[in-house]
Every structure is written in C-alpha cells, then in structure tokens.
C-alpha cells in the first residue's frame, strides 16, 4: 500500500537537494568556479556529514547515474567521423600523449606513496582527464575557442572523451571482483565488452537509424524525445545485463548516431534531462564524500592536488613545446588543463566496484579533483600576464571556423538549396537543417549533409552551432516564422546576423522592427526577372524595361512604407499598377 510518509520524504528531499543545489551553483558561477563544484559542495553541505538534512545518497545515486549515462551519449554524438578525421593530428598526437604521459606520471607518484600498481593506475589514469565542463566555458568567454590555441585545447579534451571507454575497459580488465561474488574475471569482461560494442554498432546501422527515420516522418516531437531516451536507456540496460558499464552502452549509442541527420535534434532533446540528472549525480557524490577521512588527512589532499596541478601543467607544457607551440601558449595550455575532471568521479566509482580501491580512497581522490578544479580560475588569472604578454600573432590569430558553421541555413527546399550552394561556393562553412525526412534522404544521395530538426527552436540551433555562427538564414517554405521567434533567436545569439525568407508582404510587415538584418520576399526577384524576360520577348527596348522595373520598385517601396506607418495592409492601394493608361501617364 502507498505510504504517504514516504512520498512526503521524497518531496522534502527533492526540495532540499534542488534548493541547495540551485543556491550553490548560482554562488559558484558568480565566483567563476563552475556549476560542478557548486553541486559537489551543495551535496556535502546538505548530506549526512554536515547538516544531515538529506540521507540515502546510495539510493539516489542509482537514479543520478542516468545523468552520466546521458552525458556519455551526448559525448558520443559529438564524435562524428568527419570531425575526428579533420582534427586527427592534434587528437592523436597532443591528446594521446597528454593522457598517457600525465596518467603514467600521476600513477607513478601514487604508487610511490604506497598504493599497489593496479590501484595507482586506476587512480592515476582518471586524473589525467581534465574538466570539459570548466575548460570550454573559459575558452568561450575569452574568445579563444576558435583560435589555434583553442583548437589544440579542444582536441585534447576530445581525445580525453574518447579515452573514457578504454579507461573503463582497462579498469574492468584489472578487476579483482571475486569469483564467489558471481563476477567474471577481468579478461572475460574485456571480451564481453568488445562483443557488446560490435553488437550495438550493428544494431545502430540496421535498427536504430531506420527507427528514427520512422519517428521523424511522424512529425511529433514528443515521440522523438521518447525515442531518444529509449535508445539511451536500452543501450545502457543491455550493457548492465551483461555485467558491463552502462556508460559504455550509452557512449556507443551516441557514436552510432553521430553521423546521422538526427544528431542535433537528439542533443537538443536529451540536454535538459542530462543537465538535471548530471546535477543530481554531483549532488549525490558530494553527499557521499567521506569528509571525516578528508579532515583526517588535509595535508595529503592539498599536497596531492598541488602535485596533480604541477605534474599535468609541466607535462602538457613539454608536449606543447614538442609540437612547436611558443612557450607562452604551451604554458597557457598546461595551466588550462591542469585540473582533474568530472569523469574522475565516474572512473573512481568503477574502480571501487572492481575492488581496485577502497571507498575511502575514492573520497580522498574525489576531494583532490574538487580542489584542483577550484584552483583553475585563480591560476588562469594569476598567470594571465605571463601567458599573454606580449601577444604572439602567429599562434593566437583567428583561425578558420573549422568546427561548427559560419552559417546556419534552416530549410533546405528549393529556396534554401540555392542560398546554401552559393554560400558553399564562396567557401563559407554551412550547416543545413530541415524537418522533411524525404528531403534529407534526397540531399544525402547528392552528398549534402542535412540535419533533422525544427530550426525555429533555440535549443536545437544552439546544438547546431548557432553560438559560433555569423549568419542564421531562415529559408523555410511557408509562413512559419513569427516576430517572437526572431526576437528569441537574436537574444540567444546576438552576434549572428539573421536573414529571413518572407512568404509575402504580410510576413515582411510582421517582422518589421525585429532584429532581422534582411527579409527577402520569396518570389519578388524571380517575378521581376520573369517580367523582364517577357518584355524582351515582345522586343521592348532595354531602357523601357529598366524604366518599368524602376517604376514598379519605387511604387512598391512607397506602398510598403505607408503600410508600415499605418499598420494596414490595404494602405496606398492607389500605388498598385493596374492599367497601361496609368503607366503611360505616371509622372515618374
């Protein structure tokens, strides 16, 4: 029977967790320390070891781990093959060296202080990863994400994302899971992992993509959200049934769909769930931190955090110099990526489940990651002059916007195709978005990459790269765009110039006063062109054709001005040319 007290407890816990999380995240963001630290501190404060307002962290962690599952799915969606190939040198060079060198160096220090080799690897390799959630906002706010420096930092972060699954597999292979507990040995887990990944890839090609095509044809967004969550959870559940990492299943599902037309729609639909559940994950991690163990060894935590920062900054600086970066940029890269990352908490949990480390060690090293993340904004501020003066023009000049688009074209019908192809002919990177599945399939057969999604949604535009775009062009068929939509897009992406295909005069009038840079009436120029060709066929002289066109445009402009002034579509009807006599006696 339903227990009202249990419902009240859940509501109270939810109220307290969300309330404290919101307060601390707002505070930490204001201080420039990032949301992750805010969630961790909020969880520690509200948890059983400080205020004791909320308990049962282990039970809540089961739900919260869905946030990590969704995060891995989104990471997988980012790793489409063309993007990886374009950045292969920096990813496989800088990224691989950074993870291996930093991981082994930190593992060596951990082994030297008394941990077993397996435990040292299980702790050291995760500490080689940096905080994507912290580094990318720092790069965006400084305007350096699209510079060569920013692209190198992004390449390293991308390889770190790629390395998560191999690290999970390495931890599984070293597992000390006892046979009497029903767990298979590490080598068997590795074989099962490879077989499961191969099965998921096959399912993605032959089942999941046709499934999303069917959902897309239905045109119901709610079904698409439902299908996206089903895909993630089904992939994770399959891995759990096999005794493998649920995060691995979600990651593979994301990679399977990374090069599909549905990528941006999936990201936009999953993002709210990911953000909420990931916040809950870090809240529960904060609740589970063993603060007594940390309080007993504060010097160890502080010393290891400083050692982690120093080792990672030094190793990355050396790698940067080896890749012919100037020393200031190499130092900046080292400081920027010197902290531990949010995936460290995930991998520490994996290592604990594999009996490689004790829960107390996971709490200690979780605190080390937290402390190192807290120092990054201050280290960046403290080393700014050393890193940035004098500015090296060769290394920090603006590079091409290779990742993302200079232009987003929403609507790839007969109008949008012409606009997009002319932009592409001028070497402008373009991202194409449409909701017509058949049109997407036809475009794919001609080699065009068109993403499925509703381009009037701000969240989908953001996933498609609108924050970095210089142009957003709405080329949809019909009368779909409203003034409120345009205002919302401009508020979200103020640096992008907005161009609109207007359905008719009413559409143009409706968008008057909005931040649209230019509205083109969709048939105006083609109609004028057709009229000119018709007059040429009647052997009317070129000067007379020009005069007729100029007269029409002048009258149309005057009529349009009066319509804007009065707000009446019927205004200045006398300026419409209806008879040859009026044309012959027109004073202009």
Task: Provide a compact summary of the structure.
Helices cover 69% and strands 4% of the residues.
Description:
- By secondary structure, this protein is mainly alpha-helical.
- The protein folds into two domains: 13-392, Up-down Bundle (Na+/H+ antiporter like fold); 407-584, NAD(P)-binding Rossmann-like Domain (Rossmann fold, 3-Layer(aba) Sandwich), CATH 3.40.50.720.
- Helix content is 69%, strand content 4%.
- The chain contains 27 helices and six strands.
- Strands 3-2-1-4-5-6 form a six-stranded parallel β-sheet, sandwiched between helices.
- Helix 20 (414-425) links the parallel strand 1 and strand 2.
- Helix 3 (57-78) packs parallel to helix 11, helix 8 (148-173) packs parallel to helix 16 (343-353) and helix 10 (221-241) packs across helix 12 (263-288).
- Residues 390-403 and 581-585 have low confidence and may be disordered.
Topology, pairings included?
Elements: H1 4-30, H2 35-46, H3 57-78, H4 81-86, H5 88-112, H6 117-127, H7 132-141, H8 148-173, H9 186-218, H10 221-241, H11 246-257, H12 263-288, H13 291-296, H14 298-322, H15 327-336, H16 343-353, H17 359-382, H18 384-388, H19 393-396, E1 407-410, H20 414-425, E2 430-434, H21 437-445, E3 450-452, H22 458-463, E4 471-474, H23 483-492, E5 497-502, H24 505-510, E6 518-521, H25 524-537, H26 542-566, H27 580-584
Parallel strand pairs: 1-2, 1-4, 2-3, 4-5, 5-6
Helix pairs in contact: 1-2, 2-12, 3-11, 3-12, 5-6, 5-8, 5-14, 6-16, 8-9, 8-16, 9-10, 9-11, 10-11, 10-12, 14-15, 14-17, 16-17, 25-26
